[in-house]
Specification:
alpha+beta, four-stranded antiparallel β-sheet
């Protein structure tokens, strides 16, 4: 009986060890899913962190204005190339990215280009006056400007999501020659009505300056108010008024009015 006690102890110890191992194995699967879910939470948070900047980038994409560069026009004194910034179908900025350089050309370029830039923005077309003393530069500027305008038309007409480009149009009438100088009218039409009128060309020099300053603002107001070319002539500026009406009518014909 004394010899059997150690064997029993060994058997009991072994049974206890096996029971402990089985107990540990039975507990381990219960802890693993928690660990697995904790480990899987990190990638999900990382993915969410990546989606947020992507969504912000898409929403921050601005529409922006378009920039169009015309062809480089070669002149006797060097190349002239014009770049336009366009917004809402209108020229908001014009600049010469190339112009004649060296010697006397520098002076002529500094004199002519700023004026040509202003004329391009004001006229909205390539029908602008030459700058005296810079005929070649002016001619090259007009050619490059026209090529930029030609490229601008398909770009602006094919832009999706524009806020009703067909509802608002800017049209420039023909240049009408009068006894004292050319007259040219530009109108903005929205919903079939003239919302703005401006004379982009009018007689200049001497007494013509005074008559132009007197007549043109009144004619612009009359054009918007009447919505037609049937407007009264301004007293003392008959020739300018007549030229204005003719150019206004040609602009209305182009606008379908």
């Amino acid at each position: 009986m004394r010899k059997s006690h150690p064997v029993r102890r060994v058997v009991l110890a072994t049974a206890a060890t096996v029971s402990a191992v089985v107990l540990l194995l039975s507990l381990k699967p219960a802890s693993d899913p928690a660990a697995a879910s904790a480990a899987g939470a990190a990638p999900q948070q990382t993915a969410a962190g990546q989606e947020s900047p992507q969504g912000g980038a898409r929403g921050a994409a601005p529409a922006g204005s378009g920039t169009v560069t015309g062809d480089a026009a070669q002149t006797q004194y060097g190349a002239v190339q014009v770049r336009l910034t366009v917004s809402g179908g209108k020229i908001t900025k014009a600049e010469a990215v190339q112009a004649p350089k060296g010697g006397l050309s520098d002076q002529k370029t500094q004199l002519a280009v700023p004026k040509l830039n202003q004329e391009a923005v004001a006229a909205g077309t390539a029908d602008i006056d030459s700058v005296s003393g810079a005929t070649y530069t002016s001619e090259g500027y007009r050619k490059s400007l026209q090529s930029a305008l030609d490229r601008m038309k398909p770009a602006s007409s094919g832009t999706p999501g524009a806020a009703g480009p067909a509802q608002a149009r800017t049209v420039t009438g023909k240049t009408v020659q009068t006894q004292y100088g050319p007259v040219q009218v530009r109108i903005t039409v929205s919903g079939g009505k003239i919302t703005e009128a401006a004379a982009v060309q009018a007689p200049k020099g001497g007494l013509s300056d005074q008559k132009t300053q007197l007549a043109v603002p009144k004619l612009n107001q009359e054009a918007v108010a009447a919505g037609t070319a049937d407007i009264d002539a301004v007293s003392g500026a008959t020739y300018t008024s007549t030229g204005y009406r003719q150019s206004l009518q040609s602009a209305l014909d182009q606008a379908g009015g």
